Amino acid sequence: MSVLDALESGPASLAQLVQITGLARPTAHRLAVALERHRMVARDSQGRFVLGPRLGELSIATGEDRLLAVSTPVLAQLRDLTGESAQLYRRQGEHRVCVAAAERASGLRDTVPVGSELPMNAGSAAQVLIAWEDSERIRRALRGAHFTAATLTQVRRRRWAQSVGEREQGVASVSAPISGPGGRVIAAVSVSGPIERLTRSPGRLHAQAVIAAAERISEALHSSEAYG
């Protein structure tokens, strides 16, 4: 559990696992490799340990994923309010995964199927998921990114992000952070659609609605933690 807890905030090398958990290096390695065999832990492209796919499978199987449970109706409300597709993203290693979505019923839209893995170097949701990381993780994430450290500073200040043609040409999006117990950012809620509708300043249109949706989800998570 110490190893899994250590990986909750993102990828970690063996040396980082040792530092975070306080375990002896051989013990940390043995436990991490054993967890990897059971798919509870995996490796990213740099060989660092990350939370594995089995955890997501177990969460879905139990039907008790509080984040998905409280997010589903909020995403539908956000879609109806903005007229655009709404998504929920979590970070998994070097990618962000769409774990829930409410699609626009008709017309031109940005469709992101649930389960899609998108890069962390572009898009407003990526900005949000990176902005509150520690300085070392931010520094690594900015290598090859389509946004800058100044962009992330602005995201932290106003608590929303926007992108225009960053991940995909012709697509714009707005995202805001969802915080779990303790205030740590655990996910991002987004709306996305064609630039023709969202304009080149999508935040001006939809930032307040996206922030309000993120706050509703965060509050529901905090309430279920306190009373559930």
From TrEMBL:
PROSITE patterns, per the entry: HTH_ICLR, ICLR_ED
Keyword Transcription: yes
Key words of the record: DNA-binding, Transcription, Transcription regulation
GO MF term (any one): DNA-binding transcription factor activity
The keyword Transcription regulation is annotated on this UniProt entry: yes
Residues in coiled coil: none
Pfam families found in the cross-reference section: HTH_IclR, IclR_C
IclR-ED domain boundaries: 54-223
Domain HTH iclR-type: 1-53
Highest taxon of source: Bacteria
UniProt-listed SMART domains: HTH_ICLR (SM00346)
Gene3D superfamilies registered for this protein in UniProt: 3.30.450.40, Winged helix-like DNA-binding domain superfamily/Winged helix DNA-binding domain
Protein name from the UniProt record: Transcriptional regulator, IclR family
Native source species: Marinactinospora thermotolerans DSM 45154
Phylogenetic classification of the source organism: Bacteria, Bacillati, Actinomycetota, Actinomycetes, Streptosporangiales
